[in-house]
Amino acid sequence: MFSRLRGYWQSVVVYAGVGGVAALVEWSVFYLTISAFGAPYLVAAVAGFIIATWVNWFFSRKVAFLPSPGGSPHDLLKIYMASSFALAVNLAVMTALIESGVAGLLPAKIAGTGVGFFFNYALRQFVIYSRTPITFSQGAKRAKGLLKDQPKPATSDRD
User: Fold this and answer.
1) Which pick of 99, 134, 139, 146 has the fewest CB atoms within 10 Å?
2) Helix 105-123 to helix 9-37 angle, to the nearest 10 degrees?
3) Is residue 46 part of a domain?
4) CA distance linking residue 96 with residue 110, whole number of Å
5) How many domains are there within the chain?
């Protein structure tokens, strides 16, 4: 079994980049929702989840995972359904750490996100997208493809 999983390590690292971006978005929304609006931490966690899951979906399909053989126009719905499971794990860990006094809000949120990461990766790699793992070179090529279509900055005639 471990020899079969060994082929996935590059895919996990590529997804860690995507998950890292989404996690930063999630934590930022979480923090801003609490500090700017005084929302309860569970409300802030759900707000962060909604926005970060969209970011994760976008970069997962563009960079971190190969499409499933049939492809699906419902990938975003599948991602939100799968991520809801990971959110439940995330919230359980976060709530347990906060309510027990073991950790403050942001450290508990970060711990919950870390645990949820593995659920998110497994559901995307083995259920939603192709089971074929992506390599570093494939991920880099796909990421560069996102950047090449950007418009060039305008130059001033006065320079």
Assistant:
1) 99
2) 140
3) yes
4) 13
5) 1
Residues 84/87/89/95 CA torsion (nearest 10 deg): -140
Nearest to 59 by CA among 11, 15, 120, 123: 15
Of 1-5, 28-32, 111-115, the poorest mean pLDDT is in 1-5
Domain hosting residue 67, numbered range = 8-142
Please say if the pLDDT value at position 43 is more than 80: yes
The string of pLDDT tens digits covering residues 67-97 is 877 666 678 888 899 889 888 988 899 999 9
